[in-house]
Amino acid sequence: MAIKSSFVLAALALLPFVSAQQSVYSQCGGIGWTGGTTCVAGTTCTVLNSYYYQCLPSSSTTSKSSTTTSSHPTTSSPPPTTTPTTTASSTSSAPSSTVTGYVKTSGQKFTLNGADYVVAGTNAYWLAQQTDADIDTAFADIAAAGLTTVRTWGFNDVTTAQTYGAYYQLWTNGTATFNTGAYGISRFDSVVAKAKAHGLRLIVALTNNWSDYGGMDVYVSQLNSGGTHDTFYTNAKIIAAYENYISEFVGRYVNEPGIMAWELANEPRCSGSTGSASSACDTTGSTIATWAKTISTYIKSIDPNHLVAIGDEGWFQEANPPTYPYAPGVGINFVTNLAISTLDFGTFHSYPESWGQSANESAWGVQWIIDHASAQKSANKPVLLEEFGVTTNQTGIYTQWWNTVISSGLTGDLIWQAGSQLTNGASPNDGYAVYPTGTVYPIMESAAAALKVRG
Ligand SMILES: *[C@@H]1O[C@H](CO)[C@@H](O)[C@H](O)[C@H]1NC(C)=O
Ligand SMILES: *[C@@H]1O[C@H](CO)[C@@H](O)[C@H](O)[C@H]1NC(C)=O
Ligand SMILES: *[C@@H]1O[C@H](CO)[C@@H](O)[C@H](O)[C@H]1NC(C)=O
Ligand SMILES: *[C@@H]1O[C@H](CO)[C@@H](O)[C@H](O)[C@H]1NC(C)=O
């Protein structure tokens, strides 16, 4: 259960920062790169994409876990100087963790230690912003409902340091500093430790399309001032900075069984809310697909243990779309993305009220689930309905959708979003939160039980 961080920090201190040769996992070439191109002994300069060549261990069997936090020379984020708090050892009186091993895939199923792993889950993006006691309360409620998996945010980019909650990068004049202080990554250590204490696993998104908690737009404004939202996917400095963040965040949890999967971004799209995208971003999907290949390859290079997915809304690109989400022109092609070899499973969301389907939301959502289950079968990879929400007739519509998840063979689902009564009142409610005393909760419990029976 112990986080490997102190070991990682010790290894980091030994890295040759002032060296003519690039250290393991450092950049060693690519368009616009002006730094060193020679890798230290035992590593090979490997082309990950035209913008990013990286020094990777020469032997594919080399253990990567001990050096994963090495910093990239393209960002000047200093090495962590604070010893992270050992939250894992102070975890409450919850029963000792049974969370061991890594979730893998087998065809359209997830597996764990040789058995099926059923994703009956929920979102709770706000966990890391809470106190330890409130994180415990939230996970206790979720575990009591019989859920197995929780999706949450592994990002918060700020431009002013804060003394509450959690943030992981502080940006100043185009330089990101990874936060190892009291309101930094140790808070996420707590989320992981407490999830495990309740027998739960996490799906962790590493940035956000939306500007909540910073997200892509902070990288763009800091590193490509004046650039459009979609330059997040193509600007070499931004890609390097995002990979540097991933090396810190993902690198910390390489050997952590409490993590089920990493996600490249929450709901990536080319465009802003006006619907207009920069003309450089392919609205039918190739720009974000290329980016997804780059970033997922990078994650796999530093973390061979965990699954990787995009975290997108699952838009189709059909020639004769019956409704808008079947060819919305926002830059995602679910079917072609699902074929990317470094992505282990597919994700889709369902918000018919936001997508022009209010008049027909239940039936529209049923078909949306069936169509993604069909893409799942064609690709022979797991697919998750990983966010869904309506604000009217929730019990009726969710019952129908959960029944469809089970009957269609869809791998699993995560509702948006679980709520709990915390110390200072109810957890954040955007209109979709479901609380243990509400009417949706018991249906969610039955649906989780039924999905486990189906497998
Ligand atoms: C950021 O840049 C501005 C303008 O160049 C400068 O005045 C300021 O001192 C810089 N801040 C830091 C923390 O480097
Ligand atoms: C994506 O991000 C842009 C910029 O923050 C925002 O305007 C847009 O609404 C977002 N779209 C979605 C749903 O991902
Ligand atoms: C509602 O959606 C379903 C599934 O897409 C479709 O078959 C049906 O025709 C739609 N009904 C209306 C009234 O739009
Ligand atoms: C709620 O949704 C269910 C499932 O689609 C439907 O059968 C029922 O008529 C709906 N109830 C209302 C009040 O719209």
From TrEMBL:
InterPro entries named in the record: CBD, CBD_sf, GH, Glyco_hydro_5, MAN-like
Keywords noted in UniProt: Glycosidase, Hydrolase, Secreted, Signal
GO biological process, one term: mannan catabolic process
Residue span(s) of domain CBM1: 20-56
SUPFAM superfamilies hit by this protein: (Trans)glycosidases, Cellulose-binding domain
Catalytic activity annotation: Random hydrolysis of (1->4)-beta-D-mannosidic linkages in mannans, galactomannans and glucomannans
Subcellular location(s) per record: Secreted
Signal peptide region: 1-20
Claim: Hydrolase is one of the keywords in the record: yes
Region span, Disordered: 59-98
UniProt biased composition (Low complexity): 59-75, 83-98
Principal localisation: secreted
EC number of this enzyme: 3.2.1.78
GO molecular function: cellulose binding; mannan endo-1,4-beta-mannosidase activity
Cellular component terms per the entry's GO annotation: extracellular region
Listed Pfam families: CBM_1 (PF00734), Cellulase (PF00150)
PANTHER family: MANNAN ENDO-1,4-BETA-MANNOSIDASE 1, PTHR31451
Family as reported in the entry's similarity comment: Belongs to the glycosyl hydrolase 5 (cellulase A) family.
Name recorded for this polypeptide: mannan endo-1,4-beta-mannosidase
Organism lineage string: Eukaryota, Fungi, Dikarya, Basidiomycota, Agaricomycotina
